[in-house]
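Q: Hi! First time doing this. I have a protein sequence and I read that you can turn it into a structure. Is that right? Here it is:
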Amino acid sequence: MKSRLLYSILLTAGAILPSVLFAARPVNLKTEHLTNPIGLDNTHPRFTWMMDDNSVGAAQTAYQIIVGTDSVGVSQGKADAWSTGKINSRNIRAVYNGKALQPFGRYYWRVQLWNAKGQPTLPSAVNSFEMGMMNMTSWKGMWISDGESRNTGPAPYFRTTFGTGKKIKMARAYIAVAGLYELYMNGSRIGDHRLDPMYTRFDRRNLYVTYDVTPQIQPGKNAIGVLLGNGWYNHQSTAVWDYHLAPWRQRPAFCLDLRITYTDGTVETISSNDHWKTDLSPVVKNNIYTGEHYDAREEQPGWNTINFNDTKWKPAVNRQAPSQNIVVQAMVPIRNVQEIQTVALIKFNDKDYVFNLGRNIAGVSKLTVSGKEGTIIRLKHGERLQKDGHVDQSNIDMHYRPTDDKDPFQVDIFILKGSGSETFMPRFNYKGFQYVEVTSSEPIELSQNSLTGYFMHSDVKPVGYLHTSNPVINKIWAATNNSYLSNLFGYPTDCPQREKNGWTGDAHIAIETGLYSFDGITVYEKWMADHRDEQQPNGTLPAIIPSPGWGYDWANGPDWTSTIALIPWNTYLFYGDTKILSDNYERIKRYVNHINDLYPTGLTTWGLGDWVPVKSKSPVEMTSTAYYFADVTIAAKIAAILGKKDEHALYTALADKIKNAFNRKYLNPNTGNYNTGLQTELAVPLYWGLVPENYKARTAALLAQRVKADNYHLDVGILGAKAILTALSDNGYADIAYRIASQETYPSWGWWIVNGATTLYENWDINAKSDISLNHIMFGEIGAWLYKGIGGIRPDEQHPGFGNVILQPNFVNGLDSYNSSHTGPYGKISAAWKRDGKVITYQVTIPANSTADVIIPNGKTAGLSGKPVANRYHITAGSYVFIIQ
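A: Yes, that's right. Below is the predicted 3D structure, encoded as structure tokens:
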């Protein structure tokens, strides 16, 4: 029966006495999408904020930003750097345009808003940001290393001491590293980041990290210690991507400036140079791809403290900088985000134990153990067990290419010093695993508490929530998030065990899934800089980014490397920030122009195609041309946004040419069918907008019939999986989309779940002979669809960043209740519905300063406050309840 809206009720306590209950003010101030960051390079940083106002229809009509060097002055509304004056605008973003910002300068800022009635709100709290080096000439330190061969196993220690004779006001450490590092001051490790700095194309761009070390510096003498790891810079293990042959590969090195500002205004900088001392550490081997070996007998207690005797250490050596582009790492770091306890322990004997964490993660394990000096303990990590209960790596070690048996895959080696309880956790590695098999050369006694897992990933803030009446759907959503996070390490990866590579196809498939659930803009902005580093002059991109040179000749093409357009565009839709568009627009042009040069007909066969299909494989030309069309369409849209009218016309015409060529070859004008009518062949044209408007209904009906013929199960690879659910739900077949999404038999996401999955798999067939990683994100589009296809939360392209929200729910058969939310740039958006017989209650909340269009499905007319209106409602900020039957 056609749905009909009976009435709408406004639910907000603030509608009664808003001025008494809540005082409106700007909150959640960020600079460069970070809270109170230190060490920025951008000469025109971006400011963002939210409006905290619970009143009905709350909106910002104007804002004023105050920026100054004195926090008290800024709190009083005084600006010595920049004041915007009162700007009549709803914008919650602004770009600094005041006095030139100075390297190392500390600045404070606040926002004043005016509400919907034109009244000033309370001002925000005062926030801060601090500039870093800003340019290469600000560095004083030298790049130093220990002079050892790049094939040397043990990681190097470095140390120096210095004195302070005056009272310290502020101290900052700036450290750039080719490789990985841990930084110490007076014996204490600085910060909680893991695997810093983030991986880049090291011979083209290096990142430095800034720390506030004011509390760590003591009066008088102080010590600095640095431990370097190989990371991706010095890839000593072998694999099919040739990282061991990377053009940048050398022994790790670093450059450090410790900048101390005294209360009398003077500044002193302690820098890295050849007066530092160095020696080899107990980290006797470390490889990002395989594992870490630690010999506790080689420890040097107090090596990073003041009184350590370093007379046997040798001087460090000066080294050439790895590149001439050293820039700040302005992004969320990798951390040990979650501690995971062992849920089960198998003891085979007193030399062999298997620990089960109960879920698949990316990260490390920490072992606490006692034993004889020289006892060799091996920690083997894997995702599954053999029938006899031992760890099985056969599903993840296919790309392991050992030259000998000294560097086993996903195995840490810990050699005890024999001094009671000892603890080991690797510093410069991570793995993908659920199980850890601990074997030892001598008997040891372990308990379930002896080993702990740590889920590591870029510490992006959760911004999404979802819960339904179907437990399997809830587990699919959780597994999708687990796989997304397991593959976010300063860049998006495909899997955390077998490869750890930045596969482009996996990343653009998961972009919406990631952005619905996590605040990932800083990671994606960094990764797009990696794209710019890797792009050839003719526009070609490699299939993995960053890359040592592998992937330019195989596995790339528009079905994969469309990341150059899809990542910026989706990030813009979710955040409304045009910087990522302007930063990458010229590169998008270069890319699509190159494809146009290679394939002037508009059809391209360049690409891998619908990877890991169930049984049917669609033509590569169909899927690659669809992505080419998407890229050109995005280029046209960005050109319009950036005011490039001629280029907008150029790329609009090119998109039309591609669409026409595609339909001439693949569309049957009599039936609306595409090619042979496979699921992917119908879903992909619908999803990417290639189907002419007058054919959409027929093509969608054919897709629904195809799915029904396939017993409501998937017959797609990763490109078809990206498209099929939305292609159905956006064209009137949401019930069929949900039926696919909620299947619990092969092939389906639910099939993985009922077989114990806590992450998404690489293959629909859990018993496949290849492509069987148990932690891949390439089938992860379902996470995004659960927000947009059922709850209906979508960004509005005309008002990006959820300035206006599209709420277009689908009350699918099979669910009794659904609850979701997404916190966007304006605040928390929520959409929930519950079925009670034939009546559905749909509750939505729109944050202050935002609006929404609510589109109720399957109905022609409805009522709002007793008045008949069309079945589309425009609402302002507030909480609403729609009763539908």
